[in-house]
Write a structure and sequence with these properties.
With 682 residues, the chain is an alpha+beta fold. Helices cover 44% and strands 22% of the residues. It is a multi-pass membrane protein.
């Protein structure tokens, strides 16, 4: 450009060049008076910060500095302007779009005859570099922490201990109030905090809870694998959104990271703070990574523990089997020796009775073993008939009477009316109740009380066997129905047995479309076993479920809607129902279920309770409110099967309650009721 170029002397052109430079670079050029105040236009500063000249003159430029950095910047700048040294300082500066950027400010005095005429300098945007430094530092800290956590848990072989050490290590690292690791049950609703880490003086949150406590939106998000992050409970959550629960346990901020595997919520890690806390993205990501890594370790430990337990149970079972088979052999051998040496009629008769009883006991042990083997291989076939329950219970009492009388127990029997009839295999039902009575006799000290009672409850028959025996500790009740289980506390007080009776009872109950449960307050508090079976009224009018289904489906296909969020369970059930001759549609969440139902207009809805978007209860209400769907038969098909759960679905408007896993015959029989069930009124 020549020296005569008019732009060289055109102040507007120079201004344009400066504004263009300021608008398109991340560097701010500034100048001030000797005392550090702005007394002239700073175009670059105004362009970057968006401040007007009347806003940044004097020390007004400090208003664009982040409030937390402002005092330090003012102090450093004041010290610099009192001397002539180069100035360098880092702080956060508000950009014209309202975001704060990390800036490195550098300034130098312009001297004139030994005095400062003005200060000039630049502010360079170093945000990206600072973020990279922070990310690197956080990455190093994260990796060091994860390595320390791995070292702390690597040698642990108890899943609960892995969870406890993980919670403590993470809670201390984050400086939290409480840290809890929870595993979630298969229904994706109930979760258990087995133990947790807490700061000094903070109560534990260990226990069993429902996800519903978090509120509907948070629950849905957790089931989808999205994290619940709350920085201020009172400001962000209402009572119905989970705020009531958190305030009840003194929590004002929380990270709850859910872990979803194959579409199923399996675990959660929760970090609690007793005061509001602005969780950083790095902290949130760390909690999520910890629950993922720890769960993999927990699963490995559980698999190894399960294998060890199976080996132990197998060895214990073989030893018990040898013991139980040898025990009857001894009195048989003694009785045979007596028969050879005595001709006394009374002694001979007694010896014969001994042999008969002991052979019968051996036969029952062998039958139980064979029955369990056949059931596990799917070879058992129930002979289902219309059976009066009172007659079955009388036979069961006779089966158990020798054991009851030998221990001098007081047995009270309350039979149901003759019209209480079940669709059952009478022989197997006698076996079930006989086993429960035999268990009560075995685990009740001599001279105890045993009560057998039965009654009608809606469309089910309830059979209850209660005793005042040795009871069952809460932590052992979950193992009670496992095959070959022998509870630790009962070993010295039982009177023999292979530990297969209750497993057989549970399996037979399920084959009948029913269930069995146990209740006990603990040691020496007795036990109550409850069997639930469908009544004949809950079965098809025809001779079998298959016949009833055949009558219902060919003439006009029964339309069945399957609502289940577990894809494998949903697809396999849909396939089975289609093979059985039904017209089937399906949905994977509550919202979709309502939409499909309005289009499909099903005769029967098989409805899971723990669903995303809307739970089963909300779906049931929505269907009942639709005039076109009010005649549909809504059946709860769920993993929840307690009396309270059944009462809850009944009150919510469900027509029936089936507990997973349900036998196909029982499911088909329940569906077939649509051919004879009256339409709801109103």
């Amino acid at each position: 450009m020549s020296s005569t170029d008019p732009q060289q002397s055109d102040p507007n052109a120079a201004l344009d060049r400066l504004q263009a430079l300021a608008a398109n670079t991340s560097t701010v050029i500034w100048h001030t008076a000797p005392d550090g105040t702005v007394s002239q236009r700073n175009i670059s500063w105004a362009t970057f910060t968006g401040q007007r000249e009347d806003e940044y003159v004097g020390f007004g430029w400090l208003d664009a500095v982040h409030p937390d950095d402002r005092p330090a910047v003012a102090e450093a700048w004041d010290a610099a302007t009192r001397g002539t040294a180069l100035f360098e300082f880092g702080y956060r500066l508000r950009r014209h779009d309202g975001t704060y950027r990390s800036m490195l400010a550098q300034g130098t005095p312009v001297m004139d005859a030994g005095t400062v005429r003005e200060w000039v300098g630049v502010c360079v945007d170093v945000t990206a570099a600072r973020q990279a430094e922070v990310a690197l530092r956080e990455s190093e800290l994260r990796l060091r922490f994860l390595d320390r956590l791995g070292q702390a848990t690597r040698a642990l072989t108890d899943p609960v201990e892995v969870m406890a050490v993980t919670a403590r290590t993470l809670g201390e690292y984050l400086g939290a109030t409480r840290c809890a690791y929870a595993d979630v049950e298969a229904d994706s609703n109930r979760f258990t905090i087995r133990n947790d880490w807490t700061a000094e003086g903070v109560p534990s949150s260990a226990g069993v809870y429902s996800l519903d406590l978090f509120g509907p939106q948070a629950t849905t998000n957790l089931r989808r694998g999205e994290h619940l992050v709350v920085r201020d409970v009172d400001r962000e959550l209402g009572d119905e959104g989970g705020g009531r629960m958190f305030n009840a346990i003194g929590i004002k901020a929380i990270i709850c990271a859910g872990l979803v595997k194959q579409g199923q919520l399996v675990a959660m890690m929760a970090v609690h703070q007793s005061v509001p806390r602005d969780w950083t993205p790095a902290e949130i990501a760390l909690v999520a990574e910890v629950v993922d890594r720890s769960w993999a370790h927990v699963e490995r430990v559980r698999s190894h523990a399960m294998l060890r337990e199976q080996d132990t149970r197998k060895d214990e079972f073989l030893a018990t089997l040898a013991h139980e088979l040898r025990n009857p052999l001894a009195p048989i051998k003694y009785a045979l020796a007596l028969l050879r040496r005595s001709s006394d009629a009374a002694r001979v008769a007694n010896a014969q009775d001994v042999i008969d009883r002991q052979v019968t006991q051996m036969a029952r042990l062998i039958d139980d073993l064979l029955d369990l083997s056949r059931i596990n291989r799917g070879l058992i076939q129930l002979q289902l008939e219309d059976t009066p329950l009172d007659a079955v219970l009388r036979q069961a009492v006779e089966v158990a009477r020798p054991a009851v009388e030998e221990a001098r127990h007081d047995l009270q029997v309350q039979l149901p009316p003759p019209d209480v009839r079940v669709h059952a295999d009478a022989t197997r039902l006698v076996q079930m109740v006989g086993n429960l009575l035999g268990n009560a006799a075995k685990y009740t000290p001599d001279g105890g009380r045993i009560r057998l009672a039965a009654w009608r409850d809606g469309q089910e028959a309830v059979i209850e066997v209660a005793d005042n025996g040795i009871g069952i500790p809460p932590d052992q009740q979950g193992k009670l129905f496992q095959m070959f289980s022998q509870l630790q506390h009962s070993a010295a007080r039982a009177k023999g047995g292979l530990g297969i009776g209750l497993s057989l009872v549970r399996t037979l109950a399920q084959l009948h479309g029913g269930s069995v449960s146990v209740a006990s307050e603990g040691l020496d508090e007795g036990s109550t076993f409850t069997v639930r079976l469908p009544l004949v009224e809950a079965m098809p009018a025809a001779g079998s479920a298959e016949a009833a289904a055949q009558q219902d489906t060919p003439a006009g296909l029964t339309r069945v809607l399957v609502v289940e969020d577990n894809r494998d369970g949903r697809e396999s059930l849909v396939t089975l129902l289609e093979l059985l001759g039904y017209a089937v549609d399906s949905a994977g969440d509550g919202g979709e279920a309502v939409e499909v139902a309005r289009r499909f207009e099903p005769d029967v809805v098989l409805l899971d309770l723990g669903l995303p978007v809307q739970d089963g209860f909300a779906v049931c209400r929505a269907l009942r409110a639709d005039p076109r769907l009010r005649t549909a038969r809504i059946i709860a098909l769920t993993g929840w099967g307690t009396d309270a759960d059944r009462q809850k679905t009944s009150e919510a408007g469900f027509d029936a309650h089936l507990t997973k896993p349900v036998e196909p015959d029982a499911l088909q029989a329940c569906i077939a009721l649509t051919a004879v069930a009256p339409a709801p009124v109103g």
